[in-house]
Design a protein that fits this description.
alpha+beta; 3 helices; 8 strands; about 40% strand; disordered C terminus; about 20% helix; Alpha-D-Glucose-1,6-Bisphosphate, Chain A, domain 4
Length: about 160
């Protein structure tokens, strides 16, 4: 298989785009929502430089199997706060992603209505046989982001609000 499929996911948020942007790029916010249900971000692995050329890292850990870990190391190749960022990333620990082939993650934050945000994620390239699974993963993570932005509590490892 050749990695040639891009995953595109969109979601509307009734939250100003600056707030949504911060949730993506600030490590202390990212840890509170990233990961599908059953996963969490390991706080000790978080780092992020919020600027063009800035590096960022995080490790997602499966809650019921701490030895299952997916590490993302990226660098911002575009960074326009609060409109868009693009990151060139190497992902290790995910059996559907070749860690030797960098992925590109583009996240767009478009003002929607009076105070809302239309978020658009474009990521890839993926092998065709795993692209759908990663799209579903993004949908689950965006549900967690939506719940995080709507609430005030921190997320437990199982995705519930504490």
């Amino acid at each position: 298989m050749v990695a040639n499929v891009m995953v595109i996911v969109e979601r509307q948020f009734d939250v100003p785009r600056q707030r949504v942007f911060r949730a993506w790029v600030e490590p202390q916010e990212l840890k509170r929502w990233r990961g599908s249900p059953g996963w969490h971000v390991e706080e000790e692995t978080l780092s992020g430089e919020t600027k063009l050329g800035g590096r960022h890292t995080h490790v997602k850990v499966r809650d019921n199997d701490p030895d299952t870990r997916v590490r993302t190391d990226g660098v911002y190749t575009e960074y326009f706060d609060p409109e868009v960022f693009v990151s060139r990333e190497r992902i290790t620990g995910d059996p559907g992603i070749d860690p030797n082939i960098p992925l590109e993650l583009r996240v767009e934050f478009t003002k929607y209505g009076k105070n809302g945000t239309l978020l658009r994620i474009i990521q890839g390239p993926y092998d065709p046989d795993v692209a759908g699974w990663h799209g579903e993963g993004w949908e689950k993570e965006l549900t967690r982001l939506q719940n995080y932005l709507a609430g005030t509590g921190e997320y437990a490892a199982d995705g519930g609000v504490q």
